[in-house]
Amino acid sequence: MDYAINMVLYQRDVCPRGQFVTVSHYGMPLFVSRDYTTLNRLQNVLDYIQQVLPLLIPDIKVYLTLKDRATGRAIERWQFLIQNEDLAGPDWKDHKPVTTSRKNPARIQEEIRQTMKQITASISCLPVPPPNGIDWTMAVDVPEWVPIPPGWYRQPLDPIDNPQQLGLRPFSTGLHQMQTVVTYREEAARESSHPPFFWPPPPPHFACPLVRVIIIIPSKLSWFSSDPSSSS
């Protein structure tokens, strides 16, 4: 997910391209930010995900929302859905957690590589970024009983006008499956009569009767510091 978010920030011109360096991973070149503020914001989210993954949570959603800097309105949202493959079905509470994947590591890396290629290719299907620049926020969707870090708060996601969706091919680690879906604002000149499409069709949702909440991560919060402004 770290590389996927970095690729979106780079490809959508959210952050200056001079802040990124090229690294080789999964057998392909990837762009990674070297800006401290960006790295800190991403690491806060990734550390939190690592903490809650061992819990009995059928799925976790991570959102990257892009906003028009001039208007403050959401124009694009990337959703990364992490599903626990061992907790599928209505009787998931009776399962013992599985901590070791039996899936071939080479196959996992190939599936991740294909997902990264799709993220790059999907950019050509999205509207041109606004000329005044883009701001970005991140949010995590977890059940209400899951604790959240100090300074994070619960709030609904900003709506996107005239939303269209594009789903990417999911990949699986043998423990978790990640499905990426991008929702974007369709401009009037580009409006189409066809419904949103997914390729391939997204997997069915796991049964989860739990109450869920959206956790918004403040853009200037440093999880590792008591001073909220220290990361800016």
From TrEMBL:
Keywords: Cell cycle, Cell division, Mitosis, Nucleus
Gene Ontology CC terms, in alphabetical order: nucleus
Biological processes per GO annotation: cell division
Pfam families: HORMA
Cell compartment(s), UniProt: Nucleus
Domain of life: Eukaryota
Domain HORMA: 1-182
Gene3D superfamilies: HORMA domain
Keyword match Cell division: yes
Family from the record: Belongs to the MAD2 family.
Protein name stated in the entry: HORMA domain-containing protein
Organism: Culex pipiens pipiens
